[in-house]
Design goal:
By secondary structure, the chain is α+β, with helices and mostly antiparallel strands. It is 38% helix and 19% strand.
C-alpha cells in the first residue's frame, strides 16, 4: 500500500523506504542569516560523535555533554513557560493565561493566585494549573467539566504524588492550595526525566484548558522535532499513533487521521516551528502544538530542548542520529556573540516569521 501526501511516495510502515530516502536533504535552502549561536556551541561534541545513527547514542554523546558544559541555564530558557510567553507574545498563538507568578515565597502572591482559581471554580470554568516548565512530571492539575460537574485530575505518573495531595481540595481550600505549592512546586523545577530544567525559576501558571476528548490525558498534540533549523519528523500525541515525515509524508499510525492532520495543520505549524528553531539557533528543539480537531484552532504549548521520544517509533529513532549528524556536517557554523535574552530572541523570531510570510 502506497500513500502520497506531499508529492513524496512512501510505502506504509516501510523502514527500508525510509532508510533509503532519509529525511535530511543537503540541498535545502537555509535562510542566509541563519546562525548557530556560540551559546550552544557543540563543535567538540559533534567532532567526537561516533556517527551511530540512533537517537539514544546522539543524546549520550552530544546533548548530555553539552548540558554538563555550563550550558544548562541557557538551555532551560526555552522550557520556561513565562519566558516563552514573553518571547512569542503577539507573534505565535499560545494558550490564554489567567494568572501566573514566580514569587511563590510571597504569600500575598499565593493568595492572589488562589482568588483566580476560586473565581474559575465558582463560574464552573475549565482550566489547568501547571508549574513554570509545564511538566507533567512535577504536577499539572487539570480542572474540567464531566457529566455536568467540575472535576480535577493530576496529570502525573507518580502514584505517590497523586495519593498525597487531593486535587479537589487544592482548588477549593486555601490551606491545601498553599501546602501544595510549598511542598510540590516551590523550589522544584524538574522531574527525573527533565533534569536539564533545574535552572528554571519556580513558578505557577493558571491557563485555559485546550479543547480535547476528556477521556484523553490531554489535547491532540503535534510535536515538531527540529535539528539545525530543519524538520526531522512530527510525532502526534493522542493522535492515533500518527507520525509524519519532514514533508508531511505519512510514516505510520491511522492513515485517515494522518491525512486530516496534514490537510488542516501541518504546513502552518511547520512554518512556525522552523521559525522558532532558527530564531533560537539551538541545534535541536522540539516545538509542541495543541490542535483542536473540531475548530481547527491551534496554539503553541511549549518548546523543549531535549526530545521526549518515548511515544515515537523505533524506525524514526534509528534515523534521528543520522539526520542530526549529516546536518552538522553540511552546516556552516557562525559565531553569535549577543547574550541570550527575550528581546534578542524576539527580534530573531520576528525576522524569521517575516521571511516565511507570517505575522
Amino acid at each position: 500500500m502506497e500513500n502520497n501526501f506531499a508529492g513524496k511516495i512512501l510505502k506504509q510502515n516501510s523502514f527500508e523506504t525510509y532508510r533509503i530516502k532519509p529525511t535530511y536533504n543537503p540541498d535545502l535552502a537555509y535562510s542566509e542569516d541563519f546562525e548557530l549561536s556560540s551559546v550552544f556551541d557543540c563543535r567538540e561534541q559533534m567532532n567526537g560523535y561516533s556517527g551511530a545513527t540512533d537517537y539514544h547514542s546522539l543524546m549520550h554523546n552530544v546533548q548530555k555533554p553539552m548540558l554538563a558544559s555550563n550550558k544548562v541555564e541557557e538551555l532551560s530558557f526555552f522550557a520556561n513557560k513565562l519566558l516563552l510567553r514573553e518571547w512569542i507574545d503577539g507573534l505565535v498563538p499560545i494558550q490564554k493565561i489567567f494568572g501566573s507568578s514566580s514569587l511563590l515565597n510571597d504569600e500575598s502572591e499565593i493568595q492572589r493566585l488562589f482568588k483566580i482559581v476560586i473565581c474559575k471554580v465558582k463560574k464552573h470554568e475549565e482550566f489547568i494549573i501547571k508549574p513554570t516548565n509545564g511538566s507533567e512530571s512535577i504536577g499539572t492539575l487539570k480542572v474540567y467539566q464531566r457529566y455536568g460537574k467540575l472535576q480535577s485530575q493530576f496529570l502525573c505518573k507518580d502514584k505517590e504524588y497523586c495519593e498525597n495531595i487531593n486535587g479537589d481540595r487544592v482548588i477549593t481550600d486555601y490551606k491545601t492550595f498553599k501546602a501544595w505549592i510549598e511542598k510540590f512546586i516551590l523550589g522544584v523545577t524538574c522531574g527525573n526525566i527533565d533534569t536539564h530544567l533545574r535552572h528554571i525559576k519556580s513558578g505557577l501558571i493558571i491557563q485555559e484548558m485546550f479543547p480535547h476528548d476528556k477521556n484523553e490525558i490531554g489535547p491532540t498534540e503535534m510535536k515538531y522535532m527540529t535539528a539545525w533549523g530543519e524538520l526531522l519528523f512530527v510525532g502526534c500525541r493522542n493522535g492515533k499513533d500518527v507520525c509524519l515525515g519532514s514533508d508531511g509524508d505519512f510514516l505510520e499510525g491511522d492513515h485517515k487521521f494522518a491525512r486530516f492532520l496534514f490537510d488542516n495543520f501541518f504546513q502552518p505549524l511547520k512554518k512556525n516551528a522552523l521559525s522558532l528553531a532558527k530564531a533560537s539557533t539551538f541545534p535541536n528543539l522540539r516545538c509542541d502544538f495543541f490542535v483542536d480537531i473540531k475548530s481547527g484552532r491551534w496554539v503553541l504549548n511549549e518548546i523543549e530542548t531535549l526530545a521526549d521520544c518515548r511515544s515515537y517509533s523505533d524506525n524514526l529513532l534509528k534515523n534521528t542520529g543520522e539526520f542530526y549528524s549529516k546536518g552538522w556536517h553540511y552546516k556552516k557554523y557562525r559565531s553569535f556573540d549577543s547574550s541570550l535574552s527575550v528581546s534578542v530572541l524576539r527580534d530573531r523570531l520576528r525576522n524569521e516569521l517575516n521571511i516565511h510570510g507570517g505575522k
